[in-house]
Each structure stands twice: as structure tokens, then as C-alpha cells.
Amino acid sequence: MFSRLLGKNVLITGASSGIGEACAYQFAAAGANVILTARRADRLGEVQSKISANWPKVNVHTATLDVRSSAEVEKVISSIPTNLSAIDILVNNAGMALGVKPVSEVSNEEIDAMIDTNVKGLLYVTRAVLKGMKERKSGHIIMMGSIAALTGYMNGSIYCATKSAVRAITESLRAETIGVPIKITEIKPGMVETEFSVIRYGGDKSKADAVYRGIEPMTAEDVAETVVFAASRHPRCVVADVVMLANGQA
Ligand code: NDP
């Protein structure tokens, strides 16, 4: 089943930690070549070393990329080595939350950071990759959405808005590619324990932990398994939309 991923070229944004990093290992384990991007070069280097040690036949290319810059996105995508440049699968995973606080208290910087990363960055990367997919009439774009797209929650106005935008982009892309065999998938996880959990509370781990209210959160690996499952279906079928919750999460 996962043999369908053998030799595929998979571009993952936000591959330096959490869900993106877990996806990198699981795609590599399935024999896919991985193109890994994020801002932290040192962390990308660690992921690359681990993949080379465990799956030596897999091609790994890393590139530092801040998805908020359209110029950087275009440069990085056009600098992918020729043997990997035909992207079969894009995992649009880079994302963040900052300043989990009432709208009246949120700063311009926090608003911009979330919208620029989660919405504009995702659009820049999608635009840069989709062109080639349309020319080749093949490809798969997997969006890392969130259950935050389905409901608002206290102090989540900006983050929920960005993930609602991801949902809207996903559905619009699906309409845009009707009749073209390009797969579009959105995964909407609930609670996942990653660095994100602490970052969104400005480093306050006790606040981050309190969110779980005694529920065991999912792991990055749980989500990556679902990404790889969606990516490895038969060419004729698409896993279009997945909501994943921690067991016990409402
Ligand atoms: P992490 O913080 O572990 O990972 C976020 C990744 O995004 C990192 O690799 C980070 O890399 C990258 N990133 C952040 N900003 C940028 C940027 N401007 N340019 C490029 N890369 C960037 O958190 P998760 O793994 O949890 O998050 C991954 C995705 O999952 C996000 O889209 C998040 O919204 C989504 N999600 C997470 C949930 C959770 O509970 N954890 C629940 C639902 C969805 P670097 O800092 O090196 O750039």
C-alpha cells in the first residue's frame, strides 16, 4: 500500500519539528524522496542526518525557507535539484499560533505573523508548486488545517480565522482542479502535543498543558500516519477531508 510512495518527491514545509518532522520520517520510511523546508537550518540538518542514517537510499534535500516571503518561496522552489524538482506531493504544514489572547489585546505583530504564515505563506507555496503539477497533470496537495477551522474558541480569533482560510483555500482549489487529476486533501487535527503547544502561549508550559484538561493529546506521529495514509491511496481516489481528535476531546 505504502509502496505507492516509493520514489515520489515530497515537499514538506515546517519540517524542522512536530508534525512536519514526523511526516519527513514516515515518507522517508516509505521510500519517498523528501524536500524539507523551515527557517531553522540546524533543526533541518538534524532531520536530514537522521533520515540519511536510517534510510540511506532516500534522497533528502533541505532548504531554509520563511514561507512569509513570496520571493524566498519562488527562489527555494526553483532551486530544488532537477532530480527532485517534479513535486508529486506537497505537505503544506508550516504554521503557528501566537498571542492566544482577546482581540482587544492582540498586537499587530501577532496578527501579521499568523496571517502571513498560515494563510499568505501557504498560498505562496501552493502557487509555486501547483503550476508544475498542472503542467504534469498530476500531484497531491495536503493542507495542514485544524479543527480551529470548524469552530471559534476563546482567544482564538486570529488563529481560527487563518485555519478557516486554509479550509476555504482547500475547497476553492478543489473546485479549481475539477477535471484535473490533482488531489487536494485537508487534515484537521485537534490537540497535538508539539512545540506549537508552548509557542502559542509565549513559552508558558503550564498554560499550554492546562488546555488538555486531563485528555491525552495526539502525537505528531499520529497525524503523520494519517498524512501518509492519505498520500498513499490509489491514484483514482482522494482522501479529501479528515478530522482527527484526541480521544475524549469534544
Ligand atoms: P511545531 O511548532 O512543532 O511546527 C511548526 C513548523 O512550522 C515548524 O517546523 C516551524 O519551523 C514551521 N514554521 C513556522 N513558521 C514558519 C515560517 N514563517 N516559515 C517557514 N516555516 C515556519 O508545531 P506543529 O507541528 O504542531 O504544527 C504544524 C502544523 O499543524 C501547523 O500548521 C499547525 O497550525 C497545525 N496544527 C497543530 C495542532 C497542534 O495542536 N499542535 C493542531 C492542529 C493543527 P521553523 O520555526 O524552523 O521555521
TrEMBL record:
<dbReference type="InterPro" id="IPR002347">
    <property type="entry name" value="SDR_fam"/>
</dbReference>
<dbReference type="InterPro" id="IPR036291">
    <property type="entry name" value="NAD(P)-bd_dom_sf"/>
</dbReference>
<keyword id="KW-0560">Oxidoreductase</keyword>
<keyword id="KW-0521">NADP</keyword>
<dbReference type="GO" id="GO:0016616">
    <property type="term" value="F:oxidoreductase activity, acting on the CH-OH group of donors, NAD or NADP as acceptor"/>
</dbReference>
<dbReference type="InterPro" id="IPR020904">
    <property type="entry name" value="Sc_DH/Rdtase_CS"/>
</dbReference>
<dbReference type="Pfam" id="PF00106">
    <property type="entry name" value="adh_short"/>
</dbReference>
<protein>
    <recommendedName>
        <fullName>NAD(P)-binding protein</fullName>
    </recommendedName>
</protein>
<comment type="similarity">
    <text>Belongs to the short-chain dehydrogenases/reductases (SDR) family.</text>
</comment>
